[in-house]
Amino acid sequence: MLQYALRRILLVFPTLFAVAVLVFLVLRVVPGDIVEIKMTAEGGIVSQEEIERERERLGLNEPLYKQFFTYMIGLPRGDLGVSLWTERPVSQEIGSRIALSFELAILSTILAVLIAFPLGTLSALYRGTVLDYVIRIITIGGIAVPSFWLGMLLIMFAITFFGKLPPLGTVSIFDDPLTNLYQLIWPALSVGYRYSSVVARMLRSSILEVLSEDYIRTARAKGVFERLVIVKHGMRNALLPTVTVIGLEFAFLLGGLVVTESVFNLNGIGKLFVDSVVRNDLNLLQGLVLTVATCFVFVNLIVDLLYAALDPRIRYQK
Amino acid sequence: MAVKKQNSKKAGRTVTEDVLLDVKNLRVEFKMKNGVVRAVDDISYQVRKGEFLAVVGESGCGKSVSALSLMRLLPEKAATITADHILFDGIDISSIPMSEMRKLRGRRISMIFQEPMTSLNPVLTIGDQICEPLITHLGMSEEQAEVRAIELMAMVGIPEPKNRLPQYPHQFSGGMRQRVMIAIGLACEPDLIIADEPTTALDVTIQAQILELLKDISQRLGIAVIMITHNLGVVAAYADNVNVMYAAQIIEKGTASDIFANPAHPYSIGLLRSVPRMDKPRGGRLATIDGLPPNLMNPPSGCRFYARCPMAQESCAKTDQSLQETKGSEMHQTACYFSEKALKEGALIYETDVSVQGSSTVDKSGEPLLSVSSLRQEFSVSFRTGWFSSYNGSVKAVDDVSFDIYPGETVGLVGESGCGKTSVGRAILHLNDPTSGKIAFDNLSINKKSIALVRQDMQVIFQDPFSSLNPRMTIGEILEEPLKVHNIESDPEKRLQRISELLVKVGLYPYMSDRYPHELSGGQRQRVGIARALSMEPKLIICDEPVSALDVSVQAQIINLLEDLQRELGIAYLFIAHDLAVVKHISHKVVVMYLGQIMEVGEGDQLYGEPKHPYTQALLDAAPIPDPEIERKRKRSILKGELPSPINPPNGCVFSTRCPKVVAACTSGRPELLRVGTEHMASCVLLDER
Amino acid sequence: MRLFLKAAVLSATILGTVAATNAYAGAHSSCPKQGGTLVYGVKAEPPMFDLHGNNSYAVQHYVAQHYSTLLTFDWENFPNMEGDLAESWSVSDDGLTFTFNLHKGVKFHDGTPMTSADVKASYERIQNPPEGVASPRKALLADISGIETPDDHTVIFKLSAPNAFMEAGFASPFNAIYSKKDLDADPKFPIKNVNGTGPYKLKEYKPGEAWITERYEDFHHDDNCLDGTIGYKISGIAEPMLGGQIMAEWRGTAPAERVTIKEGLGDKVNLVGPHGWMTLFLVSLNSETEAFKDKRVRQALQMCLDRNNGLKQLAKITFTSETPAGLTLPGSPYAMSPEDLATVTGYRPDGDSEKKKAMAMLKEAGYEGLKFTYSNRAVAHPYDHMAIWMMSEWKKCGMNPEMISNPTATFVTIRNEGGFDATIDWAPSFLPDPSLMLFKFISDDQTGSNYSNYIDRELDDLYNAQKGELDFDKRKALSIELEKKVLNDSHILPVAFLGRVLALDSRIKGFTIAPSHILNNTYRGIWLDE
């Protein structure tokens, strides 16, 4: 187990190295440069000489290979450079925001699982009944409705029915859990609905598939209680594909909360992503892509390990 | 499950003391989108304590459904079950509530299913699955259940039961899994075991092991067995009594000896006649039953066998005969107006085509059509063997195999699954590139490039006719495609003409060219597969298990067709199959393979009559012959153990680990293939010493 | 707009005679109510805290409240000036000497007393930025030849030449006074730190999220009425307003947003404005494009834009002003009168006949059905709306413009490198002074932001002349001459100034809207009626 995990983790590094190289090169191809935006896009009267001075200062006039070299030797030390916009270390910029994104992703996952498991199970067990159709309509809705749009609906809902939105500004869950949850529940719902729909549909179809398996018939022929047939023999097998979906969705969320975070004014890395793209803050973008890639790789790793824990066929492949 | 009681009339038969199960007028209906299918139509039978009852019949005749309905395991929404009664030990299991039924399941009635590979839950340990009924029904603690589980595993012949208890199904072979299923079935010492095709998915040697085990244990413990099978050999070997089912009805029942020796229903007679016999010399055509069983959604009135029956009279189409005592024996009952005539005339009611004489002879004076020498096929494999380790290496699927096929000759290739017979076929076709060896076809050495030159002359027929036909193309389009691609016939008019001829040639009708594959039966689809191969006018057809998915009567039709085509067109066949009787029937020469190597080669009669290799002997021993008289006299020596892993084959003779005649010399080196007669060679050290 | 007009007319006379000692101590004397926290939203994120070193309005909205400038404006009578750190000031008759008397007892937030040395150090930093410090507006102070500090509370600025803009420059919100002690320790100190003499002290900054301040008890005026302020980074205005998350946003709202907010909140919100907003949107024609080398073609493009009718429609759907404008903010002291403007190419009343004339000119020049690319910034308000209007106007004249929209970064690069025929462009000013508002339109080698890249020494001469002219009327005449020449040459096609409307929580009192979002961001005088 340990060795398998270690090997998987070691494999992460060449992957991330490739990502780093790719990101560096691709971003340099994109036209536009932060200095222009920083000095002139917002207006004001700036001389060309000042713009050049600023470029010089930020090291953007260095030859590409030199920039690449500086970037690459910084990486192993965890040095992602400084944001070209704020000139604070990239790691600091990301570090101050990633906790929120993580929390939102985790909260959405919890919410999604809480919604998806009963829905998916009921839908499968009462297949073809009104209940099944209702649940299926709900889940199709979740997949069809973009989460940012649902987010906007939720905001309008909160404004109309509560007359107010949660206060702005992140409150740590450790300092004030209630306010924190109050702030995150709407975005978590807007993301979680879609998320739960994907999971519920997966769960429904895998339960249905599993329930038609021969071993379920075997279990019934043994005289096992029906509840036990479904929970012990059915659910665990049905969970396998579902866990994969949950993991992939979670990993996707870490980089994919871009719009939701903007809609709800949450200061997470999704919004930072948008901002850094708008500002052409290459250093920050590089750092963000690397961070998200790292998260993605590790979440996949965790899913694999979880999968192995659930499925003995993977654990002892012969 | 909604079980409706029919108006119960007094049962005609007196129920004797030892009757365990009494089924009266069981009927199962499935609601489909476009109608109701009556899958079981008013069947009645009894099973006595300790009796071994076989239910035989072709697929779709309702034998599995009737068994599942006894356990009330059919999906409740789709299936409606009605019966006058189903008395199990005095309890009417057709009317008790589901909660009561659950208490019987696994406790007093157990079931063993066809697919050992999928019938066990992959994520639960073997121990857990064996213990489950013990804990559920007998209220044992986990520790007690485990002790009992180990006993059970030992009883069904699973070595090292204690160590295997915490293992998972995927760590067990198919045969071992079926043993586990039997252990589960036996766990609570039930009164009745229903075995639904328990050995169909298994190799013949493993089949023999499992059936012997089942027979032995049920006799020892006095458990009654209902075994559902289509294998008449198995029936002959093990059953006390037989129910023959046809189109949802029991058309004949009786003791095994009665049914095999004196079949009184034309269908039973036809069924028995159409099975190729390993114990009879290679002869002429197999008897066949023409046509197909009726559609159960809209069955014809009168006798359901009417359309296919050689002695049918007009009256048969109007009303059908219920089961009547035959020859005054209460035990032997037949549902036919003319059972007496059938009984008397037996096989003669089917016209045998005497004009087509025997098998074709092969001219071996010229060059062989296909010459395979020292063929090797290795596959590299790589997988994890545990949390910490992995294996990288190669498997020798085919190891130094040589044989020739002459024009117009049929060479049979037999062996258990995993012996490499399919790999040989694929290597010849270059579907896999052979690792080494020479393949010459029509004096042309075949390699990756030159295979294209002979593709037309070398065609293939696969086991599963459905998956090898594109479901989105009509039969006509399927047959037209190769004609177009290979530019055999450029004129579209003539192409259509050609397709019609092909369809007629394989026994189909020209109008079928507009149909899609799913509209045809399995046998018809296999005929399409043959027609497609024939369209290229090949010199050789490689047949990879062409009949193993088909029912006995259809199998006979296809075998006859292949033989007819050979006589007519002089085509040679490489016939790959696991069914020894079929191979013997069709082949001039038989090659027996084991773990990628040839064990024995010879003319069919000679090889089956005087097998020289212990493996061939064991194979023949394991295969049951559909004749209870012979089966009862046979002294079988059942091959122990299972096929070793091809990754790590035994040293020396690969068969040495299972060979009953093993000697020290066996492990020292690979024995040569020695000539033991004209056209007869075997690879065994014992022959060498002689 | 009406409000501003009145103020402008009033101030025009005052500004003209201002060359005398001024002794305003600040118009705001006290707060009707003390306390409360002002919560507002900012749609941008400040790249740094240094007011000297960048143009971002986010810095103004967050940071301006921490600093003081020498002078500031009387917002109710804009552009009249009053003292901030200066208790009084005077200008010599030749306009070459400015003398400021500073308030006594002013302290920085860290307790250091503020003296004339701090003023000198701050202005020298702007004028001559040390290594690692940016100063985009240093050219505006180029005429300062020396700064003298005879004592702790007197600062004297010596100019090398008369400069009509100079006085307003001392009220520029960018020219904050830093502590010399901080700058001596590290000239880059203000980039990442805040230490000023302004009404509110920085309490905490959460990057990307919030800027939290508290009242500075020792502020040298008494109009810091709030306990503190919180600025939140927001992405839209409507939802946070409706949801009670913020009370104000200081940049400006789009028409649709205003409606949503007003409908949702009714009396709880006040819409302040529309007020002229000193950002001029314009189209720069590339002087390298062959067709545009012909003045008739450029003028045809100018004439096809029927500003008298089109801007009214445009103002309804986006936040542009409906008043046709040249290069200076209409109604501001130096702007052309509407009657005067109506005689200029592109501003004449009969739009249809102008279009006909334009088509005739195109034909004459041999560019009938002219094809050209129009580079647009891919932002909905007001860029898309303006572009759609102009495209349709040009098409009515038989031209075939092709619009290429790009995100900001790419757009800026294209504009900079000349990869366009016509591009949307803008001239933001923070003061209604010709030296600022016309600077963009002089020769390419004199200004950094002339994206037409033309050279016209006549314009440069006019610009320098107005800059050195201290007499208001004469300066205005020079300024208008320059403006008319630019419009007539038609390298530049003005579209419209913006119309600024703020949505403010009705509890907010004591705020006066200014003609730029860069101005009046110290939150002085604002109190909450809770």
Give me the secondary-structure topology.
The complex is a heterotrimer of chains A (318), B (690) and C (530).
Chain A: H1 2-29, H2 34-41, H3 48-58, H4 64-74, H5 90-125, H6 130-144, H7 147-162, H8 177-211, H9 214-221, H10 226-256, H11 258-263, H12 269-279, H13 282-310, H14 312-315
Helix pairs in contact in A: 1-13, 5-6, 5-8, 5-10, 5-13, 6-8, 7-8, 8-10, 9-10, 10-13, 12-13
Chain B: E1 3-5, E2 19-32, E3 35-48, E4 52-56, H1 63-71, E5 79-83, E6 85-88, E7 91-92, H2 98-104, E8 109-112, H3 126-138, H4 142-155, H5 161-164, H6 174-186, E9 192-196, H7 204-221, E10 224-229, H8 232-238, E11 241-246, E12 249-255, H9 256-261, H10 266-273, H11 314-318, E13 324-326, E14 329-334, H12 339-345, E15 370-384, E16 390-405, E17 410-414, H13 421-428, E18 436-441, E19 444-445, H14 451-454, E20 458-461, H15 475-485, H16 492-505, H17 522-534, E21 540-544, H18 552-569, E22 572-576, H19 580-586, E23 589-594, E24 597-603, H20 604-609, H21 614-622, H22 628-633, E25 674-677, E26 680-682, H23 685-689
Parallel strand pairs in B: 1-5, 4-10, 4-11, 8-9, 9-10, 17-22, 17-23, 20-21, 21-22
Antiparallel strand pairs in B: 2-3, 2-5, 2-6, 6-7, 11-12, 12-14, 13-14, 15-16, 15-18, 18-19, 23-24, 24-26, 25-26
Chain C: H1 2-16, E1 37-42, H2 57-63, E2 71-73, E3 81-83, E4 86-91, E5 97-102, H3 116-127, E6 144-151, E7 154-159, H4 166-169, H5 180-185, H6 189-192, E8 200-206, E9 210-215, E10 228-233, H7 238-242, E11 248-249, H8 255-265, E12 269-285, H9 295-304, H10 307-317, H11 338-341, H12 351-365, E13 371-377, H13 380-396, E14 400-406, H14 408-417, E15 422-428, H15 434-437, H16 457-468, H17 472-489, E16 492-505, E17 508-509, E18 527-528
Parallel strand pairs in C: 1-10, 1-11, 13-14, 13-15
Antiparallel strand pairs in C: 2-3, 4-5, 5-7, 6-7, 8-9, 9-10, 12-15, 12-16, 17-18
Helix pairs in contact in C: 9-12, 16-17
